[in-house]
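Hello,

I think I submitted the magnesium ion job twice by accident. Can you confirm which output corresponds to this input? Input:
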Amino acid sequence: MDSSRRPFREFDDSQDAVSLRLARRVVRGLSLSMRQVVLAPGSRSAPLAYALAEAEDLGALRVHVRIDERSAAFTALGIAMDSGAPAGVVTTSGTAAGELLPAMMEADLAGVPLVAITADRPEELHGTGANQTTWQQGMFASRVRDEIHLEQAETRLEPESRDDMLSAETQVALLMRQAVEARGGGPGPVHLNIGLADPLVPQDLDGGSDPAQQRWARRPILDESQRRRMHRDAGRPLEQLHSQELLGRLGEEERQAAREQIRRGLAAAQQLDAGVPSVVVMGHDAPPEAFTLAAELGQPVLAEPTSGAFDARTAAVDGAVPAHRMLLPAPEGSPAGELARRIRRVVVAGRPTLSRPVQQLLRRADVEVLQYAPAPLPWSDERLSRRTEADLDAVRRFLGSAPEGWRDAWAAAGTTALRRMRAILETEPRLTSVRTAAAVAERVRTSLLLGSSSVIRDVDLAADLGGVLGEGPGAAAMDASAGRGPIRALRGLSGIDGNVSAASGIAIARDRRVTALVGDLTFLHDLNALLIPSGEQAPSVDVVVVNDGGGAIFDQLEHGEVGRRSGRAAQVERLFGTPQTADLQALAAGHGVEHRLVTNLGQLDAALAHPDDRLGLRVIEVRTDRTGLRDLHARLAAVVDD
Ligand SMILES: Cc1ncc(C[n+]2csc(CCOP(=O)(O)OP(=O)(O)O)c2C)c(N)n1
Ligand SMILES: [Mg+2]
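Support: Only one job matched these inputs. Its output is below.
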């Protein structure tokens, strides 16, 4: 066979993550007939992204990164239309995959070999409430010439299976043939759905040398200067950990107060008498009676921002433990760690999706978990491993009365952790995204839409929604929830698409101003929300954009680790950070929308303080830097260490 059409040599990657190995086989199958792939960022699709980048380095195909999947799909459509060869579009799971539908419809009727490649969760995670999980197999049925689903666990990966009909590479190659020939039906779109399981990153096998060189032993086609130009902004140096230094800069009084609170929390935790040490986890859209029940039994509540716990209508915020996400993973021997270890039962209300510590708590072998479900749960089916219970009395019996001091101990530990976190955030030289998100959530009284990605997690982590700190305009009111509109988010699939439009819809439905707090990519993904036809009344939305020039969240996931390996920074920044420098002020101006740039909390307050009935759309941009966030989060996590 002509070697220029077979860019890959034999290789052994049997030590690497299975997800990566499958992705490499898929890319090999694709690259037999595909030269161009358009990729949109995401975590589930990460193995495909890494494998595509490797293949691009080898000259097997070209990768183009786009932020909006709908645009990515039409870009691939244009490539395929013009070249007549299949072109691929790769997305993560969830609504990202749904964004491909318009281009697939066009490709169907125009006979264009567009190849939709959608990453999916492994089948066993469907119907369990796992985040960003929906049934994607067959989602383009009746529009595609052919479709296949590859499941990591069931797919042959070894090099010797290359000629096996079941091998991933062969299946993909055959699918490509269907895109071009479709058994006489003419070219058209095909769909490749792939269930990928954690871990989703390459193993650190290379010990520092260029991973592509190691794996494939071939020369990259892009020369060094081309690559450098592509990744100009990536790979800035890391900051050092200096939490001790920062804590040292706290006033002596504050440190004393913190110590005293920890001591009190610990003392309370040690005095626990009879009773059941339970907690109530309130996830997204939790039935409010779960909150009342927890209050009645004296059990602590770990509530996500969109649980309903912080709305004026619930008026029960004072039972919610601040910064609970920090407390759960606290080390053994620390006050918080001891509390977390004592938990024996958990009642889950609503759907928790925001934090890994909560998911880990629900999986703990020494903890019994019950899901309170007075109505059918739209996000789960019989595969949900925890028991569900519709009867509140049965939940009451399961939850049990708290031991003396149990809830107070949680409250003290949470308040201390929050206070210490805030001390760190206040000493940051520049306004951080975490502090911004917390400030917006505390200050606004309109209903609030929290964008997917970091903002909602930052609010979950560091906002004083219950007003326990007794400072700042948000907490000044005796009842922190007083007058607060509902806090909402798109947690069905946690997409970064359509967030600003959804806020507009809420504003229309309520006929009131809404605040949307979103990341920059989330904002840009839905820029068309600003496009209101002349003569139409623009919905009243303050869009606060935390502009850190790309996707910050990935650096806090495992990709951050990969990016710190030698030679990987530029690749990870390109594939996941997806840096952008769009001029939001000009974009807003182009849409006739007011824009304000905010650089400190005072300006943020001023921008948000205006009469609720003010009409129209406004963009409030807060520029922050995402390079130091991983370090900042490490320092924040350390507040529960002692
Ligand atoms: C439609 C869609 N595409 C892709 C993703 C995967 N994804 C999750 S967060 C994220 C980055 C968001 O960046 P930004 O809005 O700037 O927030 P940041 O992480 O920087 O806080 C992406 C691409 C998704 N959830 N939804
Ligand atoms: Mg961002």
